[in-house]
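For reference, the entry.
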Amino acid sequence: MNILPSLFYQRNTVVVAKELIGKLLVRQLKDRLLVGMITETEAYKSDDPACHAYTGKTKRTAALFGPVGHAYVYFTYGCHFCFNIVARDSQTLAGGVLIRAIKPLQGIEIMQQARGKVTLKNLTNGPGKLTQALQIGRELYGISLLQQGELYVAEPTEKFSGAIQETPRIGISKATDNLWRFVVLNQ
């Protein structure tokens, strides 16, 4: 698999969020690969009041200010993790792309075990669901996604050609007019 290089993430966060649609999110668990096609993302930039980095660098948000192509994993609502990829251009202080959903392609039975045997449709169709299915937790905070390892993003063998819808982001109360959520239509 061709893993996405650092240069892919060294661009406008919104552009990266849109272009991550159709890429493969790969989780290596011992001798098993869990793979899904990214079908939904959201962009967050440091000048955006909905971004965790908006108020400055903290222990929790440090990864968003760090090298691009690394993981920003956080715990939310006291019940699940969310997974972001650090991405930004040189004029942006911090930024990340929330991976909101994937279409499971490989290792589905392991994902279902981790999620309690839910239907395929509901297996990874939300940020907390996908982190649970792929077993992404705080231990992956800050890791590099730029080489084969526990977690990385790769080019699919066939270029994604589906339609992508741009909408407002979900579950935020600030900057709700930005169309920075990207989702595959008719999935």
